[in-house]
Amino acid sequence: MENLSINQRKAINAALSILFFLAITLSGAISCKSRPSAEVDSDLEIIKKAISEKRSLYYANYRSYPSKLRSLPIGMFDSGTGGLTVMEQFLAMDLFNNVTGEEGGDRIPDFAGEDFIYLADQANMPYGVYPSQSKREYLRELVVKDALFLTTEPNRSKLVVIACNTATAYGFKDVDLLLNKSKTGVGVIGVIDSGTEGAFSKITQRDTSFAIGVLATVGTVMSGGYEQSIKRYAIANFPNSDVRVVSQGGAGFAESIDSEPDYISSAASTARANYRGPLLGDSAGINPSLMHIYNFDKSGNSLLISRDKNGEIDEIQLNSTGNYARFHMVSLIEMHRLTNPGVKMKSIILGCTHYPYLSDTLRKVLDELYDHRKDGEYLYREVLEKDIEFIDPALNTAKKAFKHLHASSNLKLRNGANKLFAYISVPHKDLTDSLTDGAGNLTFAFKYGRETGTEDLTVSIVSFSKENIKEDNRLRIKERLPLTYSLLKSTLE
């Protein structure tokens, strides 16, 4: 597919988009009276190898795990650097009395003195694409491998935090099973239920209709993870309310933030054949009738446009993180307007750890929509609250982690500085040149063509450095995540 023309790719993407749109319509923008979650088979081959096959590359040797977990670090992973937004919440939070565990800050960070290990599985990202490429099992295997990195020598952790919505949606049960079988006492926390709890936390009316928006990766939306979590919470806590869930799969959004070349290219000046983001005219792509509402940034090469021989636009490609944010926020609210007339959206879950980096742009788009008029009438006010809450699941994830560690007496309770050991995956040095692109990434075909069950080494895990974290990401971390950056400064400058 990498060698297809733009028009050929558009035809294929149009067919895929129709299927995706139908899936969203049936599973995302509906009330909470939806189908029960499907059974998930968690008996992956890699779990067997980790627990019992001593000759396997993935044998974890959990029998030698320290019996006392308190002094071990907290492990956290994501498919890229987006999960550092969760790390920032861990470092900043002061919502509890560290000694008693009671709610109420004590002017001491709740995780004071804790060490952290962070893994960005950058070489294998974006995770959100694996389900659409029929690679759910491989994605589940990747998530287990991430957990194994954080629970084997020399990185043994006392808690595994899955700081990735897609990984939580597809692999949480597998990691939970792995850790239960390990008999180490190590727990796992994911971000989806945390996001759901945050979305409901400030809603006081319990006998009305309202909507919750979910902006997540395509893979997370396809999983139905948020829809099911919101449904369970609504039934238990808002039984008399009609709670609608409206989901937008952010194709290319997280990837653009991590500068994935299939979705964004600073060097591009015209539409590219290898672009994999939203396309003009697709059912889930760029809608020509909404161009004045998207209000795309057209400066520089932020928007790539090609024209036919008559000068008519035949292709538009997003080429900035801000334009991805604009497209997906408008798409979410427009879907809500069309499917839930008169029902106000009260909160939007930023269901990908990368999205909080663009919260300012997302907020600006919401303000524009709230004030947008058509024929003198406000088009979106009947479906939008004036001040919609953005829900970053990171805060509730940190709260859950504190409560878990306090209840198990595994907080260090040391009023000292934190340490962060950060790692990132890169293509393995022994791969042939044909399996990587010119920018040092795995090719799309190879990345999403691998099979489960092998012990082939396709990536290596190395420490964060200036060389393997792109400049845009370094600047974003520095500007948005000051506490995290202070711990990474020596490796990124």
Largest sheet: 6 strands, mixed
- Please identify the top-level CATH class of the largest domain: Alpha Beta
What is the CA–CA distance across the termini?
Answer: 38 Å
Content-based structural category: alpha/beta
Any low-confidence stretches, pLDDT <50, length ≥5? 1-41
CATH architecture of the largest domain: 3-Layer(aba) Sandwich
Overall domain count: 2
Give the helix proportion (percent range).
Answer: 25-40%
Q: What is the number of helices?
A: 16
Q: Largest sheet, order of strands side by side?
A: 5-4-2-3-14-15
Radius of gyration: 22 Å
Query: What is the average per-residue confidence, as pLDDT, rounded to a whole number?
Result: 90
Count of beta strands: 15
| Percent of sequence in beta strands | 15-25%
The best one-word shape is globular
CATH level-3 fold name of the largest domain? Rossmann fold
Write the layout of secondary structure elements.
Layout (H helix, E strand, L loop, with lengths): L5 H22 L2 E2 L13 H8 L21 E5 L5 H9 L22 E6 L15 H14 L9 E4 L2 H18 L4 E3 L2 H9 L8 E8 L1 H6 L1 H13 L4 E8 L3 H5 L33 H4 L8 E5 L5 E6 L2 H19 L5 E7 L7 H12 L2 E2 L2 E2 L5 E8 L2 H14 L11 E9 L16 H4 L11 E5 L7 H10 L1 H11 L1
Parallel strand pairs: 2-3, 2-4, 3-14, 4-5, 6-7, 6-10, 10-13
Antiparallel strand pairs: 1-7, 8-9, 11-12, 14-15
Helix pairs in contact: 3-13, 4-5, 6-8, 6-13, 11-12, 15-16
Descriptive notes:
By secondary structure, this protein is of the alpha/beta class. Helix content is 36%, strand content 16%. It folds into 2 domains: 6-31 and 195-391, 3-Layer(aba) Sandwich (Rossmann fold); 73-191 and 395-492, 3-Layer(aba) Sandwich (Rossmann fold). Helix 3 (84-92) links the parallel strand 2 (74-78) and strand 3 (115-120). Helix 4 packs across helix 5 (165-182), helix 6 (192-200) packs across helix 13 (394-407) and helix 15 (471-480) packs antiparallel against helix 16. The longest helix has 22 residues, at 6-27. The two termini are 38 Å apart.
